[in-house]
Specification:
Layout lengths: L16 H14 L3 E2 L6 E7 L12 H9 L8 H20 L8 E4 L11 H13 L2 E2 L4 E3 L10 H8 L3 E3 L1 H4 L3 E9 L3 H12 L4 E9 L12
Parallel strand pairs: 2-8, 3-4, 3-7, 7-8
Antiparallel strand pairs: 1-2, 5-6
Helix pairs in contact: 2-3, 3-4
Length: about 220
């Protein structure tokens, strides 16, 4: 069952009421979002795909927007772009509130599994965020060869699939603090591998931001039994 409360233990709460005020203010900022513990400097999703992180509940508003904005193999429609623009606006609300991301100097989209897709949502999001946020869009500096989908692959197979497929323009990313953007955070394997490769290419720091986080976290063990 998903946690719906955040509990903080403070040593000086009885003696210093200002500490409690700061914690309450902090919780008001981060409370609506999903913090993800991974290998990136910071990693958040705007929300779960289902309400309260419970797979038996209806889709969240963010989950519904992502569904509308993800045409997969179909051509994008006016509604595709409208939903994607709403996701960009939600990302900007997050970035405005979460000032810990302010040091980012560039935005990079997670490269698609098929470079010839008619519409790639992460690329569209990265471009819109970079424009609204006044940062560089360096998505074109990070490309990948076509690969098999990772959704149902076991962890070892995901690592093999991703190994060696990235091409990064080191001159473009060198010294940059990068916001890495994706529409969906599932296992986090691909996002973290791209983040590590960006650091290896000279990036100073990599933050992660996804639109939605899946409720389940066991996808890495599929296919291992």
């Amino acid at each position: 069952m998903a946690m719906t409360r955040c509990v903080a233990f403070l040593d000086d709460a009885n003696e210093n009421s200002a500490t409690l005020d700061k914690v309450r203010a902090w919780l008001a900022v981060v409370g609506p979002y999903v913090a993800v513990r991974d290998c990136l400097a910071l990693s958040f999703a705007l929300d779960y795909d289902k309400e309260h992180g419970d797979p038996n509940q209806p889709q969240t508003a963010i989950g519904t927007l992502r569904t509308r904005a993800k045409p997969y193999d179909a051509a994008p429609t006016n509604d595709t772009f409208a939903a994607a623009d709403e996701l960009i606006a939600e990302c900007m609300r997050f970035l405005t509130a979460m000032t810990c991301y302010a040091s980012a100097s560039a935005v990079v989209a997670m490269p698609p599994s098929r470079p010839n897709k008619q519409f790639d949502l992460p690329s569209y999001l990265a471009k819109g965020i970079a424009s609204a946020w006044g940062r560089k869009d360096l998505s074109s500096a990070v490309t990948a060869s076509a690969r098999a989908p990772l959704k149902d692959a076991a962890l070892a197979d995901k690592m093999k699939t991703l190994d060696g497929i990235l091409q990064i323009d080191k001159q473009s990313v060198d010294g940059q603090v990068i916001l890495l953007v994706d529409d969906l955070y599932q296992s986090g394997v691909s996002m973290n591998m791209v983040g590590m490769e960006l650091l290896n290419a000279g990036a100073r720091k990599v933050f992660g931001l996804a639109c939605e986080k899946t409720c389940r976290n066991d996808d890495n063990v599929r296919g291992t039994r």
